[in-house]
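Bug #77: duplicate submission created two jobs. Keeping one. Sequence:
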Amino acid sequence: MRITRRTYLKGTAGLAAAGMLGTPAIIRAASAQTALPNLASTMIWSTYDVGSTGYVEASAIADAFGKKFGSRVRLQPSGSAIGRVKPLTDGRVSHAWLANELFFSVEGLHEYCAADWGPQNLRTLLGRTNAFSVVATKVSGIKEPKDLKGKRFAIARANSSVNIKVEPILAFAGLTWDDVELVEFPSYGATMKGLIEGKADCAGVAPAAATLRELEASPNGIGWVALDPSNKEGWARAQKAVPFVEPFQETIGAGLSKDNPVWMMGYRYPMITVSADAGVDEVYAMTKAVAETFDGYKDASPVMARWEAAKAGTPPMDAAFHDGAIKYLKEAGIWKPEHQTWQDASLNRHAKLQAAWEDMMAKNADAKSADPEALQKIWYPIRADILKSL
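Kept job's structure:
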C-alpha cells in the first residue's frame, strides 16, 4: 500500500466535511475509544509541511490506524519549528512529529531561548532512524572527517537543524567550524547548488535530498564523508558534541546502494513526541498502535520499514522516552538495560537544564527583560557549565 499526498488529502477532506475541526476538547476526550483500549478515536498530529517525508509517513500510519482500529487522525502541517511544537505544548494537538526542533526545545536553544520558552518537558515514543553526513564533490578528495580541514564548506546559517548535525562530524576528527572555510548561502537548497556549481567542496545533508541526484550526475561527482563505526574515540567526541547521534550504515540515496553502503551518522526523524505529563495508558496505547499496524504501512515508501518498533523504539533520541512508551517496549522485549542507562542520563540532563533555567529567570533581572540574542549570551554559558557537570 502506497499513501500518496492526493490520497491523504482526499481523506482529510472527508474529515473536514464531518466536522472534525481539531479542538482541545477532541484531544482530551477520554470517553471516545477505538478497538484498542486507551487509544483515542480522534487525534490531531502536528507535522512538517505537506509533501515532506514526515508528513507522508504520518499519513501512512494514520491510514493504517483507521483501517485497524477505526481511529481518525487529522494532520496539522507547519513549515516552522515553533508551528509544530507550540500546538503540542498548548494542548491543541495530541502528538507532534518532530525533528531536531525537539532537541532545541528541551535544551532551550535558538528560538526556544526566550523568556516564554526555555527548556521544555517533552518525551518521545518512537522515532525513525535517518542518516546524515557531509556530502562532498568527488573532485575534492574528501572521504573522512579529517579531510574536511581547510575545505570550502557550504552553510546556510539559518538552518540550525542541519548545522547542529555537522558539529559532531567535525568533532569526530577533533575539528570545529574554525577549521573549515565557510561559504554562506541563503538556503539549504542553495548549499547543494553551490556544490554542483563548484562554489564549495562540501555541505551537511541527508542522503535522500533530491538535489543530490544532480550533484551525482554533474562533472564534480559525489562522495560521502564516512564515519568508521570502529573509531570509538571519534564517536565519543561526536556524541559529546551532540548526544542524539549514533553509527548508521546507509544504502538509500544518491551515490549509495546495497552494494555501495556508507557508514554515516544516524539520528531520528520524525520522532513521535508528547508532553511529559501525558497519561501513561494513552502513550502506551499509541506506541502499541504504531507497532501493531506496521504491516499496514511498511510498504508505503522505502524508509517505512525503519518504523518497526525494534528499530524505532531504541535510543538515542532528542529527548527521553515517555514511561508509557517504555512500558510497551519492555513488554515487547525491546527495552534493554543499556537503554535504561541512556534514559536515566537523559532525564537527569533534562531536569538539570530545566532547574538552571528556572533559577536564572528567578534570580537574574537582566534575563527577564532580555531580547533573544541577549538572553542567549546569558543562558548558553550556564547551559555549557551544566553539561560539563554531567
